């Protein structure tokens, strides 16, 4: 299973929002940290907002914040939003399946179990969990556009 870059950066945006809470995160901050084009991050932020993970505010002092506490946002839920279909093989989708082995194939059963196990792990992981090593993460990020993260470096 390989997650898309879109999913990776969505999770990074949420992680940064958890680190900066209660301050807003700017799209430019996420783009700068990860070396991405602003339009790409705008798409991600839009999708996260529509999915109910963040609250956005437009304008000069705009940006986004988490829509609920980081401990209440599961990584699995974000992955489901950003990845769309998680069908590993065609027989996972009854509308697209052309495999004559459906119902007797042990491989599809094993792949279903593997996918469930993968998602179970991600469902148990929260944005708070991936932001728990706050000091090390903020140290790596450093100041952005003159906005220092100094007062935010204590481990919680």
Short description:
The protein has 156 residues and is mainly α. It has seven helices and two strands. Strand 1 (54-57) and strand 2 (63-66) form a beta hairpin.
> Helix segment count?
7
Distance between the ends: 32 Å
Question: Which architecture name of the domain at 5-85 and 127-145 does CATH use?
Answer: Orthogonal Bundle
Overall CATH class of the domain at 5-85 and 127-145: Mainly Alpha
* Arithmetic mean of pLDDT: 88
Calculate Rg over CA atoms. 18 Å
Helix content: 40-55%
List low-confidence stretches: 148-156
Strand arrangement across the biggest beta sheet? 1-2
Global structural class: mainly alpha
Can you offer a commentary on this structure?
This protein has 156 residues and is mainly alpha-helical. It has a domain at 5-85 and 127-145: Orthogonal Bundle (Arc Repressor Mutant, subunit A). Helices cover 49% and strands 5% of the residues. The chain contains seven helices and two strands, in the order αααββαααα. The chain has helices at 5-20, 27-34, 38-50, 75-83, 106-124, 127-130, 134-141, and strands at residues 54-57, 63-66. Strands 1-2 form a two-stranded antiparallel ribbon. It starts with a helix and ends in a 15-residue tail after the last helix. The model is unreliable at 148-156 (pLDDT under 50).
């Amino acid at each position: 299973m390989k997650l898309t870059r879109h999913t990776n950066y969505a999770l990074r945006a949420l992680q940064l929002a958890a680190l900066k809470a209660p301050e807003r995160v700017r799209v430019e901050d996420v783009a700068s940290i990860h070396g991405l084009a602003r339009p790409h991050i705008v798409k991600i932020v839009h999708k996260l907002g529509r999915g109910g993970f963040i609250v956005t505010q437009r304008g000069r002092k705009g940006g986004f914040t988490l829509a609920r506490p980081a401990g209440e946002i599961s990584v699995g839920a974000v992955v489901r939003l950003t990845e769309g279909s998680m069908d590993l093989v065609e027989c996972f989708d009854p509308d697209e399946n052309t495999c004559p082995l459906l119902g007797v194939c042990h491989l599809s059963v094993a792949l279903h179990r593997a996918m469930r196990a993968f998602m179970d792990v991600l469902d148990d992981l929260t944005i708070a969990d991936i932001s728990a090593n706050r000091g090390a993460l903020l140290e790596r990020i450093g100041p952005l556009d003159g906005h220092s993260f100094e007062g935010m470096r204590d481990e919680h």
